[in-house]
């Protein structure tokens, strides 16, 4: 990963509206043509994170009628299956391209499904999300937040959640491993935004500061993908 100066958030928005959109739409998609080995491996890892998240959420009871905010929804990998489970989903992303793709996929997947509410998709920076939701989920977005900004972001997400907050992030313990692999993942210049890894302890501390504790945790790994998954609840 290379360092890009300036405002990280603007860089992230720009990336996910352009080269990052094409790249991640491909990774999160189903086609295999033109998808390389590393991207396929990340696809597998990420879908495990989505699966584990859904299992975690269903562990708390059926999702029918449960309000869920999916912060940084990407192409809708989580929002769509949650809606199909009967959840009332509000999904937002900083990238208009991502939101448009998520909406397109949702229309395809949900059209005609009985008793399913179409997620409400919005182009919105997660710091500007408002309202209250039974559950807030934020998968693989912390990688775009430096530690000093992660705390505020976690506290904001917790303020939107009434019952639980589920977060996934790339753990810092795998820093060197990941760095090595990121070299393969982002071989050329201008393909990557900076990647920030987080220590589980730091994430937990940020949650504790605002009165939340980790109730369940998981770890997902494939060759090129690493994620800690935590489910937090109010103390
Ligand atoms: N959560 C989705 C998933 O797991 O399929 C997408 C993960 S993708 C690696 C990261 C996403 O976070 C991108 O779609 C990006 O546009 C979005 N994102 C990054 N920073 C954001 C911010 N500050 N507010 C909202 N979305 C953001």
Description:
This protein has 235 residues and is α/β, with parallel strands linked by helices. The chain has a single domain (8-234), classed as Rossmann fold (3-Layer(aba) Sandwich). It has eight helices and seven strands; from the N terminus they run αααβαβαββαβααββ. It has helices spanning 8-17, 19-27, 37-58, 79-84, 96-110, 147-160, 175-185, 200-209; strands at 67-71, 88-93, 120-123, 133-138, 161-169, 212-221, 226-234. The chain has a seven-stranded mixed sheet, sandwiched between helices. Strand 1, helix 4 and strand 2 (88-93) form a beta-alpha-beta unit. Helix 1 (8-17) packs across helix 2 (19-27) and helix 6 crosses helix 8. The chain is globular, with a radius of gyration of 17 Å. The protein starts with 7 loop residues before the first helix and ends with a strand. The model is unreliable at 1-5 (pLDDT under 50). Residues 138-233 form the Magnesium-protoporphyrin IX methyltransferase C-terminal domain. Keywords: Methyltransferase, S-adenosyl-L-methionine, Transferase. It comes from Platanthera zijinensis. This is Magnesium-protoporphyrin IX methyltransferase C-terminal domain-containing protein. GO terms for molecular function: magnesium protoporphyrin IX methyltransferase activity.
